[in-house]
Amino acid sequence: LFYGAGGSRSLMQEMFGECESLTSINQLNTSMVKNMKRMFYYCINLETIPLFNTSIVNDMSEMFAECYSLTSIPSLDTSNVNSVYNMFSSCSSLKSINQLNTSMVKNMSQMFNGCSKLETVPLLNVSSANYMSYIFSGCYSLTNLGGFTDLKENLDLRDSPKLTTESVVNIINNAADMSSSSEPKTLTLHKDVFNKLSSEQVAIASAKGWNIASR
C-alpha cells in the first residue's frame, strides 16, 4: 500500500483512529507522508507496529494516544517532526522508548502523559521545544532518564518517585545555562527523589540558574 505526494495521500491523519479491534499493522510505504496526527488514536488493542518511513513527517501529535496495549515502538525517524503533543499519552503498557531525534520539535506537552509503566527514556534534544507541560504526568514508574539537551523550559517530575539520582544529574548537566536569564526555570521533583540529592548537586543546578523544587 503506497501513500504518495499530493492531495490527501500525503496525510494519514486519523487513518486508523478508534480501530479498537486492530492488533497489528502490515508494512506500509509511507515515504511521502507528512502528517500522522492521531494515526492510531484509541487503537486500544494495538500491540506493535512495523518500522515506517517517517523521514518527512512533521506532525506526530496524538499518534499513539490511548493505545493501551502498545508494548514497543521502533526507532522512528522524527528528524523533521515539530509536534509530538500527546504522542504516547495513556500508552499504559509502554515500558521504554528508543532514541528519537527531537531537535526540531516545538511542542512536547503531554508527550508521555499517563504512561504509567514507562521506565526508561533516553537523552532527548529539546533545543527547539517551547512547550513541555505535563510531559511526564502520571509516569509513576519512570526510573531512568538520559536528560534533555539544552533544556530551557520548566520540567515537572513530581509524579515519578522512582527516578534515580543519576537521572536528575543527567538533567542538570544537559540543561541550558539559565544563570543570565531574567526568568529562572524550575525542575520539580518528587520529594523522595529530591531528598536523595546532595547539597553539591543542588548547588550545581543553582549555579546554572535552575531552582530545584519538591512536591
What features would you describe in this structure?
By secondary structure, this protein is mostly loops. Helices cover 11% and strands 10% of the residues. The chain contains three helices and seven strands; from the N terminus they run E-E-E-E-E-H-E-H-H-E. The strands form three sheets. A three-stranded parallel sheet has the order 5-6-7. Strand 5, helix 1 and strand 6 form a beta-alpha-beta unit. The protein starts with 119 loop residues before the first strand and ends with a strand. The N terminus is likely disordered.
Which features does this protein show?
215 residues, little secondary structure, 3-stranded parallel beta sheet, two-stranded parallel sheet, 10% strand, disordered N terminus
Q: What value does the average pLDDT take?
A: 94
Order of helices and strands: EEEEEHEHHE
- Helical amount among residues, as a percent range? 10-25%
First-last Cα distance: 50 Å
Please state roughly what percent of the residues sit in beta strands, choosing from under 5%, 5-15%, 15-25%, 25-35%, 35-45% or over 45%: 5-15%
Structural class, from secondary structure content?
little secondary structure
Question: Which radius of gyration do the C-alpha atoms yield?
Answer: 18 Å
Largest sheet: 3 strands, parallel
